[in-house]
Amino acid sequence: MFLAWHEMRHEKGRYGLIIAVIGLISFLIFIISALALGLAHQNTASIDSWHTKSVLMTKDANGNLAQSVMTAPELRQQKRNQQSAVVGITPTNINRQGASNHDGIQFVGLNTNEYIYQNMPISKGHRPQRANEVIISDKLSHYHLNDKIKIGLDDNTYTISGITPDALYNMAPVVYGQLTNWNHIKGVNQNFKASGIVSKATTPIKTNNAQLQLFNHDQFLKELPGYSAQNTTFIFMIVFLIIIALVVVTIFLYILTLQKRPNFAVLRAQGIPNRYLLRNTFSETLLLMLFAVILGCGLTTLTATIIPSGVPMYFDIPLMFGVATGILVTGLLGSCIPMLVISKIDPVTVIGG
Description:
Number of helices: 12
Radius of gyration: 29 Å
Mean pLDDT: 87
Number of domains: 2
Distance between the termini: 30 Å
Order of helices and strands: HHEEHEEHEEEEEEHEEEHHHHHHH
Helix content: 40-55%
Strand content: 15-25%
């Protein structure tokens, strides 16, 4: 470690360049990880707030709750308890009364006596007291309490009675209202009463109806439109960037090792054990990667403080720590080839040559 630190201090420019390159790659990995997590959060924030363990919907909806429509008899067949809630979901739009611009939202209809409605956090205002009152997500920041709005295909006017924090479903802000308004807003027949049943119980919902299908939490998320493809894309991007970091570290260290072969040969000739030189290269790589990761973390922290709130980034400390550890370990793997070169140095051949 002493020799590695002394060498890095002596060659500040060379090692500073390596640290800068790896640090910028680390920064890019952190930012993409935060963006991936932020977009995933926009897909599932409401689902997570419902503590969803299982979801029951119609089979022909193919796992997309917003496409499911259940009839009153189908709902009555299912045994429900305090840990389950009937929901009606539809993607639609809202606009302030008299305004021409529309905002895309997910309308979620709820029964007022079930757990999702009763446990919903309210940051401003109050829960709906009348059928034409709704609660909106705080992401709809240009709407305010008591605003009159139109929702979807419904001709009725609704009043914003409350605001709930961080309500997002499938990349869109959520507007909560009465379940009885769901079919009007969605524009479906009065025979259809809901999209499905959400349960937070660890015991799955049971059904004997062949037209209905049960999804656990992971299966439900996998079927969210675009969710799996989006996550897979970001995972591949992160993996490729880590591989690029590995290649860059390996190339830099390999070139440095070739340049220092005469020095290593002299040290070997003076009786310095090969083990010491290998340990020095490993320590040098460890210091390089530590400084690079610290630089990447610093740039990420700075970015987090200045980035606009509308950018969907979510910084999770445990995840960032895991990514940083992955970058560090990958960089250490990159020292294997230079260490192999050092182990094969023959003092007589190098000095004599």
